């Protein structure tokens, strides 16, 4: 088992839900990212999703789009993310790290080179938003051979047949998109989420984690009643944006948001 599998196994044994924060690497400047990652762990993160900055993040709303723009202004590239993960691993060898982004930056450096460098840096999983399992025949085996989990999205509009295909190819956990739309776009309905997760549980033993619309402790707790984990992105990236001119205040702001969610999930 890689670190993702180990973490979910431990959480299941404890009867707890995973808390998975997302931040965009290099936002507001690359020298701060590793410190933010450690702050998230201190606040109760079980897995960290580290966003790869991209000029056209089609699944993301304005909050994460602007985060990508801030990072790209500093020239942040995949090679910098690998350096960040290596630095993070110097003092944290346990918290799983998932790279989340789009296929274009991966193809720029080459699929095999990406898989090699990600594994060497200490990455545990990869979620390429615009690479469905039907198109993952080449990169999937490369990741698997290096112990990297291929993580896929399931949406409310996904058909049952296609959801079964996704579950068959998925590893680590399934990322269930709770809303129709982009990140940060609306308020989720926990009852609706529960209805969509029920058939997925018949298709896979992988943990089902829910993202899009998790804004605070209350929404995290509601989703935690029906999911194996909650994923929070825009609420954290908003705090980074609000403090972009004084990055020394960001770790405390991240801890405040995530700490409330951790407490609510564990209550």
TrEMBL record:
<feature type="active site" description="Proton acceptor">
    <location>
        <position position="60"/>
    </location>
</feature>
<protein>
    <recommendedName>
        <fullName>Tryptophan synthase alpha chain</fullName>
        <ecNumber>4.2.1.20</ecNumber>
    </recommendedName>
</protein>
<keyword id="KW-0028">Amino-acid biosynthesis</keyword>
<dbReference type="GO" id="GO:0004834">
    <property type="term" value="F:tryptophan synthase activity"/>
</dbReference>
<dbReference type="InterPro" id="IPR011060">
    <property type="entry name" value="RibuloseP-bd_barrel"/>
</dbReference>
<dbReference type="Pfam" id="PF00290">
    <property type="entry name" value="Trp_syntA"/>
</dbReference>
<comment type="function">
    <text>The alpha subunit is responsible for the aldol cleavage of indoleglycerol phosphate to indole and glyceraldehyde 3-phosphate.</text>
</comment>
<comment type="pathway">
    <text>Amino-acid biosynthesis; L-tryptophan biosynthesis; L-tryptophan from chorismate: step 5/5.</text>
</comment>
<dbReference type="InterPro" id="IPR018204">
    <property type="entry name" value="Trp_synthase_alpha_AS"/>
</dbReference>
<keyword id="KW-0456">Lyase</keyword>
<dbReference type="InterPro" id="IPR002028">
    <property type="entry name" value="Trp_synthase_suA"/>
</dbReference>
<feature type="active site" description="Proton acceptor">
    <location>
        <position position="49"/>
    </location>
</feature>
<keyword id="KW-0822">Tryptophan biosynthesis</keyword>
<dbReference type="InterPro" id="IPR013785">
    <property type="entry name" value="Aldolase_TIM"/>
</dbReference>
<comment type="subunit">
    <text>Tetramer of two alpha and two beta chains.</text>
</comment>
<comment type="similarity">
    <text>Belongs to the TrpA family.</text>
</comment>
<keyword id="KW-0057">Aromatic amino acid biosynthesis</keyword>
